[in-house]
């Protein structure tokens, strides 16, 4: 299996996964024109995707969904609630007919080609929100973004993952002292907002298992975080739990506006 991040953060989230047979996106929050260029650079066709999975109906996750559904006829997978949220969102140009949709039930896996994709509940202030577990052969990849707080479900998914994309949205001090108005700070910090560097680190420290190979920190805030600060905070908390970052598992920070390298995900 291969993984590429095409964008991560409030200006657009989009994650690509493929095997020799199957290719999917999780979220399509990068504009269609930019996406077209990224696909060309990867030697892929946007219309060649087998499915687009959506986590939730915030603009930074769904900007290009109508292009995939209407122009390329690619089935969109999400919960029925998220779909209704999308239909009310002005960031989405064009209506998406219900026939293009495949509605998901949380915890019930679906098969797309040789991938099994299972949505699970994530607390966030959207109409509804899910994370995804993607399984292929003996590999388990989990994506958990836009997370107000860690729940037992999320802890279980972290414990299951060999490869994990996890939100590290903000540094708590930067957010508190930063320029955001009080209501927005409150929203971000709430248990339906976003995960801080510290909360992401604690979740990892307590629930990662030796089966975890690689973690990518995602959805970093431009105003309230910094890639090196996120890395330092997470690494020092892991070390305080006796975990050696880089040795026990790799940690990388996903860039906000540029695609990552193409990562090969292997069983060992
Ligand atoms: Zn969101
Ligand atoms: Zn978001």
Structure characterization notes:
By secondary structure, the chain is α/β, with parallel strands linked by helices. The protein has 2 domains: 1-104, Ribonuclease Z/Hydroxyacylglutathione hydrolase-like (Metallo-beta-lactamase, Chain A, 4-Layer Sandwich); 147-257, no CATH class. 29% of the residues lie in helices and 24% in strands. It contains 9 helices and 14 strands. The protein has helices at 32-41, 59-62, 65-71, 80-87, 152-160, 172-177, 182-189, 197-207, 227-240; strands at residues 2-7, 14-18, 23-26, 51-53, 76-78, 101-103, 110-112, 115-121, 130-136, 139-144, 163-167, 214-218, 250-253, 263-264. The strands form 2 sheets. Strands 6-5-4-3-2-1-14 form a 7-stranded mixed β-sheet. A 7-stranded mixed β-sheet has the order 7-8-9-10-11-12-13, covered by helices on one side. Helix 5 (152-160) crosses helix 8 and helix 8 runs parallel beside helix 9 (227-240). One zinc ion binds next to loops.
